[in-house]
Every structure is written in structure tokens, then in C-alpha cells.
Design goal:
By secondary structure, the chain is α/β, with parallel strands linked by helices. Helices cover 40% and strands 14% of the residues. The strands form three sheets. Strands 3-6-9-12-14-15-16 form a seven-stranded mixed sheet. Strands 1-4-7-10-13 form a five-stranded parallel sheet. Strands 2-5-8-11 form a four-stranded parallel sheet, with no helix packed on it.
Length: 264
């Protein structure tokens, strides 16, 4: 037990550059929440669930961090800042996980089954992230700040957005991948709204082309003046709507720093 406590203290020193002296670790809400949880979890495993809940609720009152006594937490777990963190009963957290404030590991089922996420080793979870359901976040993955994750995240990947999509996998940004790799990723984790917008814009382009063809075939002279006016209003818009949409939503055209999402 004491070796585990020493590891919990050491990981704060290693992962928080704001730490002044080693004595300051005893002011960290995340450390106190973890110490209370380790006691509550032992009581829970001994089927002393009422006592376990008392310990966990007292910890919540002190730290504003709610960890269900049934949650399984590995070694060297660090909750930075901590305020607003919620970890559900059947959540499983591996070793060396770094979690920031306002993170939720929540469930989606009312059945008494495994309904909370499983977090692998060496995972970073950015502030405000919501990881929902019986899903798995692989080893060395990174979850961006304020992301909502409802599907499995592969090992080594970075997931961002609402709903979360894979932005970086195996060390490569989405924009750096080959076409086949991008298509494979899109099939497994497509953005439904983005795909819907592309289909709508593609159909609009098709309809516009058909209308222009019909008009030119029937009254080419009468439409010449109208087309000239239209060109004046559409200066700089020679690209199709779908091309413009892809340019606007291309991550490479709008790089975001700190996609891993520490959020501090």
C-alpha cells in the first residue's frame, strides 16, 4: 500500500510542472480522491458497499471528484486539477493515465453489465472530455479537450471533436495519409453530418449543371446577359461547392495546436 502511495506522489512530481515542493502534493485534490478511492474500492470488493459509498461520497464532498467505489484504477493515475471528474462503476483505467478536470467516464445502459469505458495504459484524456459507453481506448491514445467519444479509439491514436473522430493514428496526421488509408478510416469512423453535407452539396452541383445545360440549349442568347451578371457576383468562386466545403473542413488547412488536449 505504501509503495503505491509513493508512486502516486512521484507521478505528480513527474507530470505537473507547477509543483513547487514535494509537500504541495498533499494539497492536490486528485491525490486525496485517489487515496479515498483505493480504500473505498477495497471495501467494495469485500462487499461492504454501504461503507464504500460513504467513503466515496465523503471524498466527493472534499475534492469535487466522484469516483464510484467499483471502478478499477491502475497504478500511477494522476488527475490534474480534478474538479468535476466523474468515473462510473464499471470503468477500468490502466497504468500511467493522465486525466484533466471535468472528464466523464460514463455509461449508456441501465443493465447491470459492463457499461463504462476501459482506458488503456499511458493514455492522456484532455479537459472536459466525455468517454461514454462500454468502449475501449487503446494504449498511448490521446483524447482531445471537450471531445465526446462513443466508439473505440485504437492504440496510439488521437481522437478529437464531437462526436470524436480519429485525427492522428500511428504518428501520422490524417492529411499525411494515403488515399486508401483515409478511406479505411472514414469507413470505420465517418462523420455522419460531414458526409451528409457532402452528398447534399454534390447533388446541388449536379442540379445546377443540369439547369444550366437545359437553359443554354433552349435560349442561349437570352441567357448570355444573365450569366455575365452571375459571374460578377461569383468572382473567386470558380470551385465547386463540394471543393469549397472540403477546403473549409480540411484539418491541414486549419491546423490546431495541442490536439492531444491537455487543456491547461
Amino acid at each position: 500500500m505504501f509503495s503505491t502511495i509513493r508512486e502516486d506522489i512521484r507521478v505528480i512530481r513527474d507530470k505537473d510542472p507547477a509543483l513547487g515542493s514535494i509537500l504541495e502534493v498533499w494539497t492536490y485534490a486528485g491525490l486525496w480522491a485517489l487515496l479515498h478511492h483505493r480504500l473505498a474500492h477495497k471495501l467494495y470488493k469485500l462487499n461492504l458497499k454501504f461503507l464504500a459509498r460513504i467513503v466515496s461520497q465523503w471524498s466527493r464532498f472534499l475534492t469535487n471528484i466522484e469516483i464510484h467505489p467499483g471502478a478499477t484504477i491502475g497504478r500511477r493515475f494522476f488527475i490534474d486539477h480534478g474538479a468535476g471528474v466523474v468515473i462510473g462503476e464499471t470503468a477500468v483505467i490502466g497504468d500511467d493515465v493522465l486525466m484533466y478536470h471535468q472528464v466523464t467516464l460514463g455509461g449508456t445502459s441501465l443493465e447491470k453489465v459492463k457499461r463504462h469505458p476501459t482506458i488503456g495504459n499511458h493514455v492522456l484524456i484532455g479537459m472536459g472530455a466525455k468517454i461514454i459507453g462500454n468502449i475501449t481506448v487503446g494504449d498511448n491514445a490521446r483524447i482531445g479537450a471537450n471531445s465526446v467519444v462513443t466508439r473505440d479509439v485504437p492504440a496510439g491514436a488521437t481522437a478529437v471533436g464531437i462526436p470524436a473522430r480519429i485525427l492522428i493514428k500511428d504518428g501520422l496526421h490524417l492529411s499525411e495519409r494515403s488515399t486508401s488509408q483515409v478511406m479505411d478510416m472514414a469507413l470505420s469512423s465517418a462523420d455522419p453530418m460531414g458526409e451528409l453535407m457532402r452528398r447534399v452539396l454534390r447533388e446541388m452541383e449536379d442540379v445546377r449543371c443540369r439547369v444550366e445545360t437545359i437553359e443554354e440549349n433552349h435560349e442561349p442568347d437570352a441567357l448570355m446577359h444573365v450569366h455575365e451578371i452571375g459571374r460578377e457576383h461569383r468572382k473567386g468562386e470558380e470551385s465547386s461547392l463540394i471543393d469549397l466545403y472540403d477546403q473549409m473542413t480540411d484539418p491541414a488547412a486549419h491546423p490546431q495546436e495541442n490536439v492531444g488536449g491537455g487543456g491547461i
